[in-house]
TrEMBL record:
Keywords: ATP-binding, Nucleotide-binding, Transport. It comes from Deinococcus metalli. This is ABC transporter ATP-binding protein. GO terms for cellular component: plasma membrane. CDD domains: ABC_Mj1267_LivG_branched. Residues 1-28 are annotated as: Disordered. SUPFAM superfamilies: P-loop containing nucleoside triphosphate hydrolases. Pfam families: ABC_tran, BCA_ABC_TP_C. Signal peptide: none annotated. It comes from the Bacteria.
Amino acid sequence: MSGPSQSPAVIAGRTDFGGQPVHAPSGPPLLEASNITVRFGGVVAVKDISLAVRPGEILGLIGPNGAGKTTLFNALTGFVKASEGRVAFDGRDITHAQPQVRAKLGMARTFQVERPFEDLSVLENVLVAAFLKYRGRAAENHAYDVLERVGLADRAAQPASQLNLARRRRLELAKALALEPRMLFLDESIAGLNPPGQQEMVALIRQLAQSGLGIVMVEHIMHVIMSLSDHVICMAFGELLAEGDPHDVAAHPDVIRAYLGDDDD
Ligand SMILES: Nc1ncnc2c1ncn2[C@@H]1O[C@H](COP(=O)(O)OP(=O)(O)OP(=O)(O)O)[C@@H](O)[C@H]1O
């Protein structure tokens, strides 16, 4: 995940996307990760990070390039093995569970680079996921419902290859939603979109959280993270730098230093 980084301090006051989250996360955590460490040979990509996400809560992961966000995201979703620590979903230990097992339990992810079946229609792409839950007509109805939810129903018959970037991102989201997840992991779903596309995606993500989904998102666009997240974790060099309310994190001196560098750098 690479991309331009903005200073959180610079954007902390922006409200282009409607300011603070309006939904109310509730209940015990759906996802709990404790003391996650990931090593690649001698590189400690993630060091002793703990987090929890409740239903309806949006957790934003931020940090400069190479901070370890992707690796942590992958450790949560099972695409990378944690060297140490524990991950629990809905109270169940999933530390050693494969990604497809986690998906079946209700954890769905999107990929930074969307990978639809280009020759299949939008509906067929979603059906591939819907068939994991339903059969025949029920799967088709479910896929249509999901396309309605992400605003792609009018594109159902179109080949995925003909979609523009904003619609491809929504198709990626639709494929994840077809699994009827309780938690969504969004890997830079907004980066690269133009402002109207960003606003649509922000509104959609907010709706999904309001409907009770727990969400973890990695995103480089700071004003998006700041306006959407209930809780922000900022990492640098694999370690936790700061966490808490988005505006407190944006104002944290260590976070500002990590993004802007020291004067004597
Ligand atoms: N498969 C791997 N093998 C070895 N080192 C890796 C591997 N994946 C990541 N790393 C290293 O782990 C560190 C964290 O990388 P990671 O991609 O998780 O950071 P990031 O915060 O997502 O960065 P970016 O925002 O640039 O995508 C980096 O030093 C990276 O080089």
